[in-house]
TrEMBL record, chain A:
An annotated GO cellular component: ATP-binding cassette (ABC) transporter complex
Keyword Amino-acid biosynthesis: no
Bilayer disposition of the protein: Peripheral membrane protein
Main subcellular localisation: membrane
Domain of life: Bacteria
ABC transporter domain ranges (all copies): 6-237
PANTHER family recorded: SPERMIDINE/PUTRESCINE IMPORT ATP-BINDING PROTEIN POTA, SPERMIDINE_PUTRESCINE IMPORT ATP-BINDING PROTEIN POTA
InterPro entries: AAA+_ATPase, ABC_SmlMolc_Importer, ABC_transporter-like_ATP-bd, ABC_transporter-like_CS, Mo/tungstate-bd_C_term_dom, P-loop_NTPase, Transp-assoc_OB_typ2
Ranges in a coiled coil: none
Protein name, entry field: ABC transporter ATP-binding protein
Organism: Roseibium aggregatum
Localization per record: Cell inner membrane
SMART domains, A to Z: AAA
TrEMBL record, chain B:
Pfam families according to UniProt: Amidase (PF01425)
Domain Amidase: 29-442
Name by which UniProt lists this protein: Amidase
Keywords associated with the record: Hydrolase
Lineage per the UniProt record: Bacteria, Pseudomonadati, Pseudomonadota, Alphaproteobacteria, Hyphomicrobiales
PANTHER family according to UniProt: AMIDASE AMID-RELATED (PTHR11895:SF176), TRANSAMIDASE (PTHR11895)
């Protein structure tokens, strides 16, 4: 058996007009991994998914599933199923008929059809509505039906194209959890496309961030969040605090950055041996690691880097408070903190504050290579 | 994908030739179509008859392997507008009211004919509710999306909306539609495929859900005129076709300058004129002139209403006057209700003008073919139409303006793609003949297609 469930090797998609939709996509996915593709619309994530599904031809590179090359194999001969945002449910067929459809297409023997359909209906709790048609189903039921239809063919890889996009926020949350549990139970590989970075981060074992047809970074969610490797990822993912500057020195896993708010430092995301000093860089500090204190408060807790500014707004949402700190006329930073902390520390609109963090929590990213 | 996907995107006739030559397998092809249907990105198929299709494909495989095809289209998959009875399936006319109606007891004769010819019935596709509107919007099951604009959702055209979308987006090589006011030709135009409206009575309408018993016609949407020629034969249960290509040098073409050239989108006008000059360069003789019968028909439609509205009211009066009317698309109810208000005198006037017009147009053409832009505009964006009923009715009537003249005067017509606008949306060229001249029409259309598709 091959080591990987799914391998993309320099995958490329060029449309007839010459537009390059995907370029140089390399990825290896292990059995049972949950991979999210995320990026702004038009970044190539859905095109890549459709190439894996066989719905788009592959212009260059290779697609391997369990070690076997599927680059030229038509969609119905691939061990994949796709769940679409619109679910592609046939409205005039019952829930059961919709599920059976995939098995008919794959010519499963009819005795087996009933057994497999019954089992998936049971697993996804569709028994009460097995004879209902689409018109009487709720959004969550439609979602489960789409999953049942995708899973009944026992694919090796399930491809999900923004499958939760049509659901309201509450339902979305609960189905996200259901999906994770289902995926662990089945232990099959899920490739999940979304434009919502919070969904990608909460769903994926690893996340692929795409931009303009290229892969920006492939990392576990926590690493992606805390250690971005490019300005695009730093800006796209999470609630990072970003300060522009110029590199003054970089060595031994530490980069020092000159900014208009003073000298700051962080962990370089680039090869320090080749970076030139004076290169334009971003200093990126994840929101969680940035503390807010009244100006000039004594040091504690090993926070090494500080910038100062004036509080311009305080917005409370339940227990949480968002404090906007104006560092200068071009840069304001918004900090999420707790209501109590604001009260205890006497932070109020118009007051001077310090933002502090440990330099090893910050990452330094090259703005232009 | 490349082979079977490539094959699935060819014309029905090319597919049939590959199947008959043993270069492709009808079962593999059918599986591929079904798989693509399972991945449809808008509500095109309402009901997929996968079991039936695969059974038919196996039978076709055996015939073809034995060198004994049932027809020149043996083994070719086809999609059917959900107005046509399939034995054991509900015919819904894309209405919520019929969602759970009793299944049909028999295949409609037109389907039986295609089945006898070895064609594979993939299933039933979406339409404008009751086949009554030219834009193809469906509030119950969703609107099948025009595949030519991946960014802005655009109307598929109607009423055979999903028949055209299925062919244009590669879910089926060909499809069946019906045309009472433009319902084959308009979606063909909006989706860049070929659509053929037959003469009244040419292709059997038994077992086909009626809108207007007088004006309803059945016909194909396909990827070439050759496909339409073969489907015209197969759908009638014929085993040969007398259609002969008419050489361009002997084509006489009349361009009516009344009504049908008014208020065209610039790209439609430009592509139409470009098509005319190509035909002229190829040797066709063009004449332009007024056609007062069109003015009269347009005026009378305003004053007296339409045969379709009168007959649709008779077909559906129990529904639109009953407690269930609220479950029908309000825009469709509004159009049917107009038939209720018509008097016997209105209908008699319409029928007299129609009869006189058919005779006059026959004299005027005297063997020539008539041409016009199929629609005055390309497929419009859906969102504004959904938001504003007045706009919907205005654009709907304008969409139907040219084609409905063909229904009123029983002029069979072939809609042919003739280019695109700057945004890649297709435009269409409509070639018409007088009633019952379908075979000459198809013969001329073969030639017109060749001329329009030839490189400059």
């Amino acid at each position: 058996m091959a080591d990987y469930d799914l391998e993309l090797v320099k995958l490329r998609k060029v449309y007839p007009g010459g537009t390059v939709a995907v370029e140089g996509f390399d990825l290896r996915v292990e059995r049972g991994e949950f991979i999210s593709f995320v990026g702004p619309s038009g970044c190539g994530k859905t095109t890549t998914l459709r190439m894996i599904a066989g719905l788009e031809s592959i212009s260059g590179g290779d697609l391997l599933i369990r070690g076997q090359n599927f680059t030229q194999v038509p969609t119905e001969r691939r061990p994949t199923s796709t769940i679409f945002q619109n679910y592609a449910i046939f409205p005039h067929m019952t829930v059961r008929q919709n599920i059976e459809f995939g098995l008919h297409v794959r010519k499963v023997a009819s005795a087996d059809v009933k057994k497999r359909v019954d089992s998936i209906i049971d697993k996804l709790q569709l028994g009460d509505i097995a004879n209902a048609k689409e018109g009487s189903l709720s959004g969550g039921q439609k979602q489960r039906l789409a999953l049942a239809r995708g899973l009944v063919t026992e694919p090796e890889i399930l491809l999900l194209d923004e499958p939760l996009g049509a659901l309201d926020a509450n339902l979305r949350k609960s189905i996200q959890e259901e999906l994770k549990i289902l995926q662990r139970e089945l232990n099959i590989t899920f490739v999940f496309v979304t434009h919502a970075q919070s969904e990608a981060l909460s769903m994926g074992d690893r996340v692929v961030v795409m931009n303009s047809g290229k892969v920006e970074q492939i990392s576990a969610p926590f690493d992606l969040y805390t250690r971005p490797k490019s300005p695009f990822v730093a800006r796209f993912i999470g609630r990072n605090k970003i300060i522009e500057g110029q590199l003054s020195e970089a060595a031994n896993g530490r980069a020092v950055v000159r900014t208009r708010f003073g000298t700051l430092s962080g962990v370089p995301s680039f090869d320090t041996s080749t970076a030139s000093t004076d290169a334009r860089v971003l200093l990126v500090a994840p929101s969680e690691y940035v503390d807010i204190l009244p100006a000039g408060a004594p040091q504690d807790g090993g926070q090494t880097d500080t910038v100062s500014g004036q509080v311009s707004a305080i917005d409370a949402v339940g227990q949480f408070v968002y404090v906007t700190v104006r560092l200068d006329e071009d840069l304001s930073i918004r900090i999420e903190t707790h209501r109590e902390k604001i009260g205890q520390r006497g932070i109020e609109i118009g007051g001077q504050v310090d933002l502090r963090w440990q330099s090893e929590r910050a990452t330094v990213v090259l703005e232009a290579a | 994908m490349q082979d079977v996907d490539h094959l699935a995107r060819q014309s029905a006739a090319s597919i049939a030739r590959a199947l008959a030559a043993g270069q492709a397998d009808p079962v593999r092809l059918t599986e591929h179509c079904l798989e693509k249907i399972g991945q449809q990105t808008s509500p095109v198929f309402l009901n997929v008859t996968a079991d039936r299709a695969l059974r038919e494909a196996e039978a076709a495989f055996k015939r073809l392997k034995a060198g004994n095809p049932a027809s020149p289209l043996d083994g070719v998959p086809m999609a059917w507008k959900d107005l046509v009875d399939f034995k054991g399936e509900t015919t819904t006319a894309a209405s919520d009211i019929y969602r759970n109606a009793a299944p049909a007891s028999d295949d409609a004769p037109v389907l039986a004919n295609a089945t006898n010819a070895g064609m594979i019935a993939l299933g039933k596709v979406n339409l404008s509710e009751f086949a009554y509107s030219g834009l193809g919007l469906n509030p119950h099951f969703g609107t099948p999306l025009n595949p030519h604009d991946p960014v802005t959702p655009r109307a598929p055209g109607g009423s055979s909306s999903a028949s055209a979308v299925a062919v244009a987006s590669g879910l089926a090589p060909c499809a069946i539609g019906t045309d009472t006011g433009g319902s084959i030709r308009i979606p063909a135009a909006f989706n860049g495929v070929v659509g053929c409206k037959s003469s009244e009575g040419r292709i059997p309408t038994k077992g086909v859900f009626a809108l207007s018993k007088t004006l309803d016609t059945v016909g194909p949407l396909a990827r070439s005129v050759e496909d339409c020629v073969l489907l015209d034969m197969v759908l009638r249960g014929a085993v040969t076709t007398p259609v002969r290509r008419i050489p361009a040098e002997t084509l006489r073409i009349f361009v009516p300058e009344t009504v049908v050239l008014d208020d065209l989108e610039p790209a439609v006008a430009e592509n139409f004129e470009n098509s005319l000059s190509r035909l002229e360069r190829a040797g066709a003789r063009l004449t332009r002139g007024p056609l007062p019968e069109f003015t009269e028909a347009a005026r009378l439609a305003e004053e007296a209403g339409s045969i379709t509205a009168a007959e649709a009211y008779v077909e559906h009066r129990d529904l639109v006057d009953g407690p269930q009317a609220g479950r029908i698309d309000r825009r469709v109810v509004a159009r049917i209700e107009r038939g209720k208000a018509m008097s016997a005198a209105d209908l008699i006037r319409l029928n007299r003008v129609r009869a006189a017009g058919m005779a006059a147009i026959g004299d005027r053409l005297d063997g020539a073919f008539m041409v016009m832009p199929t629609t005055p505009h390309v497929a419009p964006a859906i969102a504004p139409l959904e938001a504003d009923d007045a706009l919907f009715h205005r654009i709907n009537l304008k969409t139907l303006r040219n084609t409905m003249l063909g229904n009123f005067f029983n002029l069979p017509g072939v809609a042919l793609p003739n280019g695109t606008d700057a945004g890649s949306m297709p435009t269409s060229f409509l070639l018409c003949a007088i009633g019952n001249d379908d075979e000459r029409l198809l013969g001329a259309a073969l030639e017109v297609e060749r001329v329009l598709m030839a490189a400059n």
